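testing teh design pipeline on a random one, pls ignore if ur not involved
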């Protein structure tokens, strides 16, 4: 590879195996002339390429400006490495520069039995090194078709470079024929300039200007593509709640793993520091189908951004980019509550703090159900969705399943959503969520905070598998305090512990109308009202899902205490029913 300017290389080149030689849809200036931004990454490409690249492309995640990469259906390499070769004499790696103008030898070997692809590089004067530069396990059975073409490809760029293939051999099965180095042609000599002496200063100057303009244009295009967003005119009404992707990219250091806070069913969450205000935030990346009601979806996000309560995680705003939605939240330095409840390698959360967290989440749900301008159904209340701020105050977060409706109206939801162990029985029958459904989930949440365990734990003895059933049976035996978290070692206020356990059972009634409202629950927890007595038979408590598979077809199994037998059913519909 011989650049016209010694210190600046042009676009690299690639050894390519492709189902066609027709690259009419490819970009001439990028992607080695074989793909474009739309086709890059499609499994239908059936493309294998080994790239020798001298230009770093940030959007293709190139490691540097002098590397070898293995590409499958995409120009984002599955593995790459700086160009070196192993010296068998000196027992160490030696560097090579692709644009040095020196002749090099490249070996590409694929073992169909071991399914291993090796790439080795060395100067032309060296024999094949014993250690390859790249060695990648790779199953090509899904890539290769009955008819494939083998060759080389490259693209043009702002800086010109000449690529020479002095000789090559290829074998579909077995070892390829070795090249006789002595018979290879020599590199063509560079043409001497025939221009008049007085043009020797003018031409380089003009060339330099053109190069600067072209490079600047390329950099601008690359940077613009890197930070490209989806924006529509109607989004202007949400103004300040819209963040730029560029700011979020910089805040999270490019969404690196070092800033990753956690992964969930709705996406990954990253820690970030906004460059404009130096404020810490949490940025959640969620996949979003633009074919959905995008305007209504963003409107709902904007509504969430207007929620203001000391026990809610504040949503500051959002950003849309291609198939992604980025949500920007207040950063909670102490993480989620479930980690302090269920992990033995963390300090035990004392009872006073637990009771404070329960009261705080109850206050937040009361605000969502009755005190805001609309009724907000959270639909996923659980310990892992309660985050702790710097002072260990509980804040309800993750509104990925939340739904809004006007006060006095009936919510139009007919899809079973939520988490196994927290789903109210009426949701599995009708698919409809209500404030009573949130109360059921909150009851389960109270029990897991008090007992220090999850709602369903299959490894426990049969009578203890379902948390609600176990607490109910212990209460009937007069031993309800025996269900308290053993890590507390009895250090709790007995009246508060008993109140939380009994209130959790009261919220677990299978009949929605029998459950208390969040206002009543807050009054009980604040000591402003007395908890009513419950029937000892407990026949209407404890309808709990114990198995659930998503997505698509799934099976739900229910267990009811006392005289009700277990029921199970399967469905592909969003509205479910169950015989009794």
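output:
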């Amino acid at each position: 590879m011989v650049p016209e300017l010694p210190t600046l290389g042009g676009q690299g080149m690639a050894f390519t195996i492709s189902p066609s030689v027709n690259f009419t849809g490819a970009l001439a200036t990028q992607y080695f002339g074989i793909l474009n931004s739309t086709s890059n990454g499609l499994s239908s490409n059936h493309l294998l390429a080994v790239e020798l690249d001298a230009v770093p492309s940030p959007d293709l995640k190139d490691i540097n400006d002098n590397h070898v990469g293995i590409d499958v259906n995409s120009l984002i390499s599955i593995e790459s490495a700086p160009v070196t070769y192993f010296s068998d004499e000196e027992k160490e790696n030696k560097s090579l520069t692709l644009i040095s103008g020196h002749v090099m030898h490249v070996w590409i070997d694929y073992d169909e039995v071991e399914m291993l692809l090796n790439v080795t590089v060395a100067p032309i004067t060296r024999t094949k090194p014993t250690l390859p530069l790249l060695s990648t396990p790779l199953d090509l059975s899904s890539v290769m078709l009955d008819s494939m073409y083998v060759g080389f490809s490259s693209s043009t760029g702002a800086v010109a470079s000449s690529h020479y293939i002095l000789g090559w051999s290829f074998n579909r099965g077995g070892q390829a024929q070795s090249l006789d180095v002595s018979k290879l042609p020599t590199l063509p000599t560079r043409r001497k300039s025939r221009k008049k002496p007085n043009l020797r200063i003018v031409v380089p100057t003009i060339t330099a200007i053109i190069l600067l303009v072209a490079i600047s244009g390329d950099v601008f295009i690359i940077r613009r593509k890197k930070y490209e967003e989806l924006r529509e005119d109607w989004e202007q009404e949400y103004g300040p709640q819209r963040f730029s992707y560029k700011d979020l990219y910089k805040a999270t250091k490019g969404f690196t793993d070092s800033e990753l806070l956690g992964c969930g069913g709705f996406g990954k969450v990253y820690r970030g520091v906004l460059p404009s205000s130096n404020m810490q935030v949490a940025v959640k990346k969620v996949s979003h189908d633009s074919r959905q009601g995008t305007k209504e979806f963003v409107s709902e996000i904007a509504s969430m951004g207007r929620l203001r309560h000391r026990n809610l995680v504040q949503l500051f705003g959002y950003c849309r980019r291609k198939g992604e939605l980025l949500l920007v939240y207040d950063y909670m330095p102490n993480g989620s509550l479930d980690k302090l409840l269920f992990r033995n390698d963390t300090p035990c959360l004392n009872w006073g703090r637990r009771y404070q967290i329960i009261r705080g989440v109850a206050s937040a749900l009361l605000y969502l159900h009755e005190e805001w301008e609309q009724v907000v159904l959270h639909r996923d209340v659980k310990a892992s969705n309660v985050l702790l701020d710097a002072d260990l105050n509980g804040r309800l977060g993750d509104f990925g399943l939340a739904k809004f409706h006007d006060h006095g109206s009936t919510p139009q939801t007919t899809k079973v959503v939520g988490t196994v162990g927290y789903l109210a029985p009426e949701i599995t029958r009708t698919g409809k969520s209500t404030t009573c459904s949130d109360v059921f989930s909150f009851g389960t949440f109270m029990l897991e905070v008090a007992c220090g365990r999850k709602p369903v734990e299959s490894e426990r003895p049969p009578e203890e598998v379902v948390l609600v059933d176990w607490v109910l049976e212990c209460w009937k035996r007069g031993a309800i305090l025996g269900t308290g978290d053993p890590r507390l070692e009895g250090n709790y206020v007995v009246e508060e512990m008993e109140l939380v356990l009994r209130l959790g059972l009261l919220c677990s009634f299978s009949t929605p109308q029998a459950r208390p409202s969040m206002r009543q629950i807050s009054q009980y927890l604040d000591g402003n009202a007395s908890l009513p007595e419950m029937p000892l038979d407990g026949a209407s408590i404890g309808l709990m899902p114990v198995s659930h598979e998503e997505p698509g077809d799934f099976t739900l199994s229910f267990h009811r205490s006392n005289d009700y037998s277990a029921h199970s059913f399967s469905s592909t519909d969003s509205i479910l029913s169950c015989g009794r």
